[in-house]
Specification:
The protein is of the alpha/beta class. Helices cover 48% and strands 12% of the residues. The protein contains 20 helices and 15 strands. It is globular and about 85 Å long. It binds one RNA strand through α2, β10, α15, α18 and α19.
RNA sequence: GCGCCCGUAGCUCAGCAGGAUAGAGCACGGGAUUCCUAAUCCCGGGGUCACAGGUUCGAGUCCUGUCGGGCGCACCA
């Protein structure tokens, strides 16, 4: 059990004793009782709000309850001081050994330290990236990809059975546009001048090799053939080529999905009809005419009767069309089928990571999931805001017209996958993020990736010196270190920060917010750097004290624990900790 | 017009499940290097948490409204 979980248990036990003595009513819920590290050190090392919460149901003044609780807690051997503080907090100071024990726990558990079986094997489907297979990934895709991948890692770490999934939108008008674009490149490869690309097609250079490959394979067989003869074939070929490219882009980021689901395959297998029949059987489909959307007027608006889903019955703002006037299914219809498919594969929890420009889509899909599962399945959507690419503080123009889109691959090759991944988690997902190609590779404390890696590298450096100087460094020896020798405030501050790791992990998982790990690591690294520098001014605080080997061993144990937590955190983020700075 | 997200120090952002006197970095001013990596650290000033109500013992956090910014809004994806 983690430090704060133990404290919470202590508080609950103390409350139970108060109940036994009749000082508290029996039928109380302790659910909202928390034990937290206070912001202000004057409020102790841990604080509980129990008395504030229970005062009303107990019919007693908060301070009176707080004093009773403090008295009960003061008897615990780990508790050095328990004070009631207005308006009714109980502040605790713990025996340093209570915190020091976390070092041993971290050493024994390694990167499993703080790991909790929150999920109990519950399956969760995390869908992320899911970029259309019409071109390479760009930087914006990269953010959602990293957020989704780190979230998947985090949930897997915490006991969920995670499936990482990519939905391939390989059907519809965009694929026809892709096929036509490739056909142009194909004709170009056969020596034909093609001029400029018509509006709506994909002029990017990345289709040139695809056209060339098709020219080699098929010669001029489809050069002047009617579209009906090649549209489907070229579409498939182009999607295959783009998907191969996207998989390479993902691999460069260290991302590997478990499942790629093809929209086209779903459609061809009749899953859309099946899904809609299912909703129909629940009485949730009807044919009707939607009112014209307000706001900017649409030129060619005509009121047409459409097949609609009763999304308003499940919290959406309007009912949603399922079939286009062309007779094709809407994207939404296919998406319902897709999510129903996920549900039937055993996922009653699904997380989709999307770009913020899809925000307007969230309610309708959640409505659909609620509808087909009768409320038994949950769809969470995490929206990622834009990434502003900068180059030395100046915005990098991503002009699509000039064909100068900055691909994810370009950026990852320039700054490295580890830097990219970490920086993508230095903001919460729903805040815009500046990504400066220069700043993220600078080796300075202003660069959080570097700052954390530097802490890890410094610890590794200490261990190299330790081995050279004949200090014991094996884990079996470090766990036996006399940890009570750690007594400097800077050391104990680092120990207490370390003890917060399990709590950080749990909360990050509960909230589905992997960026919290990145922030935690920056804080932990900061306390480590502070301790390090303190050793510069106070040589007695240096880690490798030759004349006092037990003390050195205790300090090495602390450093090993910090290194373990950094490595664990970086591991979930998907970053390789460095042992030396390059 | 409607929906979603955002509004916290001069700038960029945290703020943990509603907790106490709101934090960090940058920038600005001052300081630390016989030493395990100074690629770092320490000290200092700096705030009407957009605004107005409400719920609560307690609100940056929850609810309502207003203002400001971003995104989206039939038959695209």
């Amino acid at each position: 059990m983690s430090a704060f979980a133990r404290l919470a248990a202590l508080v609950r036990a103390a409350l139970a004793r108060l109940q036994e003595r009749g000082e508290l009513p029996r039928d109380l819920s302790f659910d909202a009782v928390v034990v937290e590290p206070p912001r202000d050190p004057a409020h102790g090392e841990a604080a509980t709000n129990a008395a504030l919460l229970l005062a009303k149901p107990a019919g007693k003044p908060p301070m009176e309850l707080a004093r009773a609780l403090a008295a009960a807690l003061a008897r615990e051997p780990e508790v050095v001081a328990a004070r009631a503080a207005p308006p009714g907090f109980v502040n605790l100071d713990l025996d340093p050994d209570f915190w020091r024990a976390e070092i041993r726990a971290a050493l024994e558990a390694g990167t499993d330290y703080g790991r909790l079986d929150l999920g109990r094997g519950r399956p969760v489907n995390v869908e992320y990236c899911s970029a259309n297979p019409t071109g390479p990934l760009h930087v914006g895709h990269g953010r959602g990809t990293v957020v989704g991948d780190a979230l998947a890692n985090l949930l897997a770490h915490m006991g969920y059975r995670v499936t990482r999934e990519y939905y391939v939108n390989d059907a519809g008008a965009q694929i026809e546009a892709l096929a036509r674009s490739v056909h142009l490149r194909y004709r170009e490869a056969l020596g034909e001048p093609i001029g400029s690309f018509p509006e709506g097609l994909y002029p990017g250079e990345y289709l040139v090799p695809v056209g060339r490959a098709l020219a080699e394979r098929y010669g001029d067989r489809y050069r002047t053939a009617p579209e009906s003869e090649w549209l489907d074939l070229f579409g498939r070929e182009a999607v295959a080529a783009m998907l191969a490219r996207i998989r390479e882009d993902l691999a460069a980021l260290g991302v590997r999905h478990d499942v790629f689901t093809s929209e086209r395959a779903l459609v061809e297998a009749g899953k859309v009809e099946e899904a809609l029949d299912f909703l129909k059987s629940k009485g949730l489909l009807y044919t009707g005419t939607l009112p014209a959307p307000k706001g900017k007027p649409i030129e060619d608006w005509e009121p047409v009767p459409q097949l609609l889903f009763k999304a308003t019955a499940f919290g959406d703002d309007t009912d949603r069309p399922l079939k286009r006037s062309t007779g094709h299914w809407t994207y939404f219809a296919a998406d319902i089928a897709y999510h129903l498919d996920k549900w039937r594969r055993g996922f009653d929890w699904m997380i989709d990571v999307w770009g913020a420009d899809h925000a307007g889509y969230v309610k309708r899909l959640q409505a659909a999931v609620k509808a087909f599962s009768d409320g038994a399945a949950t769809l969470d959507v995490r929206l990622c805001q834009l990434v502003n690419l900068l180059d030395g503080g100046k915005p990098l123009r991503m002009s699509k017209r000039a064909g100068r889109i900055v691909t994810l691959r370009d950026v990852v090759e320039e700054v490295g996958k580890d830097v990219f991944r970490f920086v993508m988690l230095t903001r919460k997902n729903d805040a815009p993020l500046d990504f400066d190609l220069v700043a993220v590779t600078e080796q300075s404390k202003d660069n959080p990736v570097f700052y954390v890696q530097y802490a890890h590298a410094r610890i590794c450096s200490v261990f190299r010196h330790a081995r050279e100087q004949g200090f014991p460094t094996a884990r079996e020896e470090l766990v036996r270190a006399p940890l009570e020798r750690l007594s400097d405030p800077a050391e104990l501050a680092l120990v207490r920060a370390l003890a917060l790791w399990p709590r950080c992990l749990e909360q990050a998982a509960r909230h589905g917010e992997p960026h919290r790990l990145a922030f935690f690591l920056v804080d932990l690294a900061g306390l480590f750097h502070a301790l390090w520098t303190k050793g510069k001014e106070h040589p007695e605080l240096r880690f490798l004290v030759a004349e006092d080997r037990p003390l050195a061993l205790a300090r090495l144990a602390l450093l090993a624990a910090v290194r373990t937590v950094i490595a664990a955190g970086l591991g979930i983020i998907g970053v390789q900790p460095v042992e030396e700075l390059g």
